[in-house]
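User: Please go through the entry that follows and flag anything odd:
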Amino acid sequence: MSAIQLKQETITLNQVDYLIQSLKDNQQYDQDDEASARIGISSSTWPLFGLFWPSSFVLAATVAQLKLKDKRVLEIGCGLAFSSIVLHGMGVDITASDQHPLAREFLDTNVMNNEMPPIHYQTGDWDTANPALGEFDLIIGSDVLYQPDHCKNVSEFIDIHSERKVQVVIVDPNRSNRSRFTRNMQTLGYSHHSERFSMMDLDRKPNKGHILYYQREN
């Protein structure tokens, strides 16, 4: 990587401390990252994967309460993969996935910083089939609906990688695409309910949104 600036902070969830390395701010950009340029990641969107977003904390807190014994779990658009790290520490069979070429490097660093064994990781491009990824009992994600075309791409990606009986949990910070995404999921055969969340982020700023739950029984 070129001279991008990083930071480390301790995130506490359920009385467990996690040391997380992230980009210093949203102004960081590795102009030498040719792999990102080849798949269309611009300088403005490049740092998004490497920031710690409030929605990722809400997702981790939510899924950490679920009964996940013997379930295979996939985190899509994982970014820093905080939920994956939390579930991995709980002994859950978790696979993290993201499109950004540097997501795995940051994941490996944070896993090592927290003295955990490696986490399963696969490239997760919502526009491209990935047969090696397989199918899962639970699929999770946070703030993955920030572009209009994500409504279709993310719903179809989830469906391709879902077991017939599956749960889906998406944390959405009130993006305007939420309703379209839900309609797509219902068309694919998933039932739906949601609940609101409100929290203070790490900078003590208010954050609100919805936790979206989808389920298919057969």
